[in-house]
Amino acid sequence: MNDWRSCDNCGRICGLKYDPDILCCFDWKKLPCQRCGGALSEIREHNGKKYRHCYACHSEFFEEE
Predict the structure, then answer these.
(1) Would you call 9 exposed, middle or buried from its count of C-beta atoms within 10 A (0-12, 13-18, 19+)?
(2) Of 19, 27, 59, 64, nearest to 41 (Cα)?
(3) What DSSP assignment string belongs to 1-65?
(4) How many Å apart are CA 47 and CA 7, to the nearest integer?
(5) Which sign, positive or negative, has the C-alpha torsion 57, 61, 49, 42?
(6) 12 CB contacts (<8 Å, ≥6 apart)?
(7) How many CB atoms are closer than 10 A to CB 52?
(8) What are phi and psi of 8, to 5 degrees?
(9) Apex CA 50: angle with CA 49 and CA 54, to 5°?
(10) CB atoms within 10 A of CB 7
(11) pLDDT value at residue 53
């Protein structure tokens, strides 16, 4: 199951919304991790800081404000 995929962590800009039940977006492309090349998460927030998490190596990358 690919429930971690969303438009918020897709490297393409297409305007379609990903639906895991009907797979309306077949062209989902991962945002690559700067360290290992794995897929990054959607933007998350903790203690007021925004970041992306790598699902492969578990590194965290803070977003520029």
Answers:
(1) buried
(2) 59
(3) --TT--GGGBS---SPPP-TTTT--TT--BPBPTTT--BB---EEETTEEEEEBTTT--EEEPP-
(4) 24
(5) negative
(6) 27, 28, 29
(7) 21
(8) -75, -15
(9) 125
(10) 15
(11) 95
How do residues 4-60 score in pLDDT, each as one tens digit?
787 788 888 776 666 666 655 677 788 999 999 999 999 999 999 999 999 999 999
Which residues is 46 bridged to in the sheet?
Answer: 49
For the beta carbon of residue 58, count every other beta carbon within 10 angstroms: 11
What pTM does this model have? 0.73
AA letter at 2: N
